[in-house]
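Regression test case RT-17, inverse folding.

Input:
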């Protein structure tokens, strides 16, 4: 088994790490305080090709695999978790359904500008999708007429293209919901700001309210009634990407705590030289390395086209827990300073907790692991 990082992947990681340190980290606290998405920074990421990193070159992407995308998100989250989450929402939640289920015309019309970064995509996370029935779409000739609301749409206020899931029939056996592509300029669509979250504040969400909004049937994704299946496929593929961001925010917290511990002195020597603090730092590094290896395995399995396996939710669960635990320890090392906004420890903790629960609770993740155990002999 080869654990070495391919040369090309190593170069991409280094490029993204440098970008994060230079462009993201210096202003991360300001963006967090304002709770506002920074479009110019996203445009700079698009110039690096990151907006379409997993999609084919023919549609404006880099044609990279899940392993590369995971590594990119980890490095971004290390500097600014909100920016990593914004890219995740754009590519993994909004662009992915079009790439996976769109027609050729839909891919040319919508996926290409999304992959090139010319337009910004938005979609709801899985927790928000539990409110499918709040949005109704009724077929009327060649159109669907939308009425209702879609909550928790990441980057909705800044986005150009949305992927929404609406109730189009009786929700029996999960066949009553359908996925659609919606443009921001659609008549009858208004965007309503939502209260700022505790974490990931610079990737805010908003609600999409529809009132007699007419959407052409040509903007339907997949079959009528296939929305839940599309959402499930998209979010299953995204698990390792959330885990990667959790590893990244944990790494950011560890780096900040280590730098502070090396600088701060007590009893004639640095905090890092005190055994109690040194043991904390070692434990944090151990947790993160384990989380990173689980995440890389899950991402590698996705890149190989493997069927759903326990590695995906296991990585998501473990990395989410590890990120929160490491962020708490980092705040402890900062002491009272950790509770102030002058230092990044409190932001890392808020972001880590959000990543732990934003798509699925830990309990629901564990519930999804159990049925897969009998299908994977190596797990037990």
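Golden output:
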């Amino acid at each position: 088994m080869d654990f070495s990082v391919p040369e090309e992947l190593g170069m991409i990681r280094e490029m993204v790490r440098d970008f994060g340190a230079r462009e993201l980290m210096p202003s991360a606290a300001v963006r967090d305080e304002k709770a506002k998405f920074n479009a110019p920074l996203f445009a700079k990421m698009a110039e690096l090709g990151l907006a379409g990193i997993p999609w084919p070159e023919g549609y404006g992407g880099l044609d990279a695999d899940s392993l590369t995308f995971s590594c990119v998100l980890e490095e971004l989250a290390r500097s600014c978790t909100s920016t990593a989450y914004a890219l995740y929402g754009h590519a993994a939640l909004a662009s992915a359904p079009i790439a996976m289920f769109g027609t050729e015309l839909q891919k040319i019309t919508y996926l290409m500008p999304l992959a090139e970064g010319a337009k910004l995509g938005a979609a709801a996370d899985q927790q928000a999708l539990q409110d499918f029935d709040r949005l109704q779409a009724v077929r009327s000739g060649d159109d669907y007429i939308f009425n209702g609301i879609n909550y928790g749409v990441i980057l909705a206020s800044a986005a150009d293209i949305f992927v929404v899931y609406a109730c189009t029939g009786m929700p029996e056996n999960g066949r009553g919901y359908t996925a659609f592509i919606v443009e921001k300029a659609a008549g009858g669509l208004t965007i309503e700001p939502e209260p700022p979250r505790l974490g990931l504040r610079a990737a805010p969400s908003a609600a999409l309210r529809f009132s007699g909004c007419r959407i052409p049937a040509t903007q339907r994704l997949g079959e009528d009634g296939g929305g839940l299946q599309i959402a499930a496929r998209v979010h299953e593929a995204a698990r390792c990407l959330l885990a990667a961001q959790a590893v990244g925010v944990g790494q950011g917290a560890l780096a900040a705590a280590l730098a502070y511990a090396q600088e701060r002195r007590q009893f004639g020597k640095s905090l890092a030289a005190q055994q109690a603090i040194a043991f904390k730092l070692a434990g944090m590094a151990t947790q993160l390395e384990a989380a990173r290896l689980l995440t890389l395995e899950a991402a590698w399995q996705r890149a190989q086209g493997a069927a759903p396996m326990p590695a995906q939710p296991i990585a998501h669960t473990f990395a989410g827990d590890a990120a929160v635990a490491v962020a708490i320890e980092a705040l402890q090392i900062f002491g009272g300073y950790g509770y102030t906004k002058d230092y990044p420890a409190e932001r890392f903790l808020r972001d880590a907790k959000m990543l732990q629960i934003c798509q699925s609770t830990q309990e629901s993740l564990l519930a999804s692991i159990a049925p897969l155990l009998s299908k994977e002999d190596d797990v037990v």
